[in-house]
Amino acid sequence: MYLTAGLHRSVQKHPDKTATITGARRQTFQQLANRVAHTAGALQALGLQPGERLSVLAHNSDRLMALLLAGWWAGLVVNPINTRWSAAEVSYALRDCGASALAVDDALWPVAQALESDLPALRQRLYMGQGATPLAYQSLDVLVQQAPSVEDVRSAPDDLAAIVYTGGTTGFPKGVMLSHGNFWASLVGRMAEIPNPPEFVTLLTSPMFHVAGLGRMLGQTIVGGTCVTVPVFQPEAVVAKMAEENVSDLVIVPSMLQMLLQNEGFNPQHLPCLQRILWGAAPITVPLLKKAMATFPQVEFIHAYGMTETAASVSVLRLSHATAFLNSERIRSAGQAGLSAEIRIADAQGQEVPRGTPGEILIRGPMVMQGYWGRPQETQQALRKGWLHTGDGGTMDAQGYLYVIDRIKDMVITGGENVYPAEVENVLCSHPAVQACAVIGVPHEKWGEAVHAVVVLRAGICATAADLDAHCRSQIGAYKCPKTYEFRDQLPLTAAGKVQKTMLRQTVAAGAAP
Questions:
Q1: What is the 3-state secondary structure (H, E, C) of 352-402?
Q2: Rounded distance, CA 204 to CA 210, Å?
Q3: β-strands 359-364, 371-372: how paired?
Q4: How does pLDDT run across 250-295, given as a tens digit for each residue?
Q5: Residue 475 backbone dihedrals phi, psi, to 5 degrees
Q6: At a CB cut-off of 8 Å and minimum separation 6, what does 380 contact?
């Protein structure tokens, strides 16, 4: 299938139903389809051919949705760019994927102004804003108004749909190549397990340069659900918009959930229509999860595990509010393999290990990427013998439930012992004074590496390193406990809400942590 098929279906079934809400703007599915067809006409009129790359630097909005869909309508490969990247990082992505066109909105215009001039493949620059069109750019709105409506090219399943760059938390970001079929397999597999009622009103909090946000938008388009967009995640604005538009469905990352619950004046009673919270993309601590579930006793909580390379989730866990479940080990699980996926835990040679034994999570199925753009060696390394080697460490129990331990590359090896930071972080966050934390390895003369904790304390609550050390030693082995602690006001996060551990390692090294 092709990614505009859902739009055709929704126009056929309910053309007058609200498709998008951005600020005061509301758009039906028929209006959205009309804009998409005319935008595709504008892209073709600019000389863009099927297979060329259309890069987009913009916050979530109805205009962004329409442009991405129009790119696929015209047979282009879309490249939604991380909105928190610097101009140098954006220039890198444009060069790396050989983008023929770049579209920029108002908020990201300062970044666009600072882009490198040496971008020979970039022929067209489009301005998505409402103000005066900058020099060397063309107004997308004007082009759309002048363009004819064109027929959908209806791409083949194996046609490349998107190049989505990994977070870039280590080294240079890699462009993940995802086909129309990759996305479709992921979407349909997820919806077969987790119903997606067309009456759901979804708030797109995850940015659409992330597969979680992109996938949720596409899922709503397929079933005819409504998408509400906010440009960035700000707790007060998010709650106000959810209350105003009767949002029933929320896809979120743990850091966003924590900010929401800790926001001063937050009252869950202001969100009576909320029915489901799906979280993923980063580990969540059990204390935060239990707090969220207690705050929203009427809401279904779902944990989804996946990655950019799998076009979003490959396993899901529907959590129970029952006391027995909340106090069981199962609460830490990422669920069982989804209907489109095979999952195994393997050793360094790719051989499956016995249940309960830690190893690397391997995935195969029709949602697995085609590879990394322009990186054949890294593609070959990641895709071996039909399996995607995720780089995530995990275990699987006798019932096939997956437990994600941590990124293998984040594992700390201290004195020959393996320490998974997520386990230590979970223990630290169970201390009442800890709001957030991140655990990394730092060089140590004796042990090779030492466990180092960066901690954010709750406002008005004090705790010392000795307090936290005593707490950790009461729950985990001494070799796993942090040797050193550092207290900060906040942790550096990516735009997708993940802690930037590479940045932490750099700043800790610069400060010569022991």
A1: ECCCCCCEEEEEECCCCCCEECCCHHHHHHHEECCEEEEEEEEEECCCCCE
A2: 11
A3: unpaired
A4: 998 887 888 888 887 788 888 899 999 998 877 777 888 999 999 9
A5: -125, -25
A6: none
All residues at 6 or more sequence positions from 373 whose CB lies less than 8 Å from its CB, including other chains: 96, 97, 163, 174, 175, 176, 177
Q: Strand, helix or coil at 178?
A: strand
Q: Residue 331: name the closest of 363, 292, 281, 360 by CA.
A: 292
- Report the alpha-carbon distance of residue 198 to residue 186 in Å, rounded: 18
Are the C-beta atoms of residues 200 and 249 closer than 8 Å to each other?
yes
| CA atoms of 4 and 185, how far apart (whole Å) | 14
Strand bridging mode 359-364 / 342-346: antiparallel
Tell me the CA end-to-end span of the chain in Å, nearest whole number: 55
CA nearest to 223, candidates 6, 498, 445, 395: 6
Q: How far apart are CA 10 and CA 220, in angstroms?
A: 9
Amino acid at 189: G
| Tens digits of residue pLDDT in 105-131 | 999 999 999 998 889 899 999 999 888
**487-512 residue pLDDT tens:** 999 998 876 667 888 788 888 766 64
Q: Which of 213, 162, 167, 223 is nearest to 369 (CA)?
A: 162
Gap between the Cα atoms of 317 and 302, Å rounded:
6
Name the residue type at position 283.
Answer: P
Look up residue 338 and give its two tokens. Answer: 């989804």
Q: CA-CA distance, 80 to 109, in Å (whole number)?
A: 15
What lies within 8 Å, CB to CB, of 91 at 6+ separation is 115, 116, 119
Q: Please tell me the number of Cα atoms within 13 Å of 500 on its side-chain side.
A: 19
CB 306 within 8 A of CB 316: no
Neighbours of 445 (CB within 10 A): 7
Instruction: Please name the helix (run of DSSP H) or strand (run of DSSP E) that holds residue 467, with its range, or none.
Output: helix 465-473
- Which pLDDT tens digit goes with each residue over 69-104? 999 999 999 999 988 888 888 999 999 999 999 999
Q: Indicate the angle between helix axes 421-429 and 465-473, nearest 10 degrees.
A: 110
Residue type, 439: V
Tell me which residue has tokens 């928190």.
84
Q: Is residue 108 within 8 Å of 59, Cβ to Cβ?
A: yes
- Domains assigned to the chain: 36-179 (3.40.50.980), 411-510 (3.30.300.30)
The tokens for 478 are 């001494």
Q: List, in sequence order, every beta strand (DSSP E) within 199-298.
A: 201-204, 226-229, 249-252, 276-279
Tokens of 378: 């890294």
* CA–CA separation, 162 and 176 (whole Å): 8
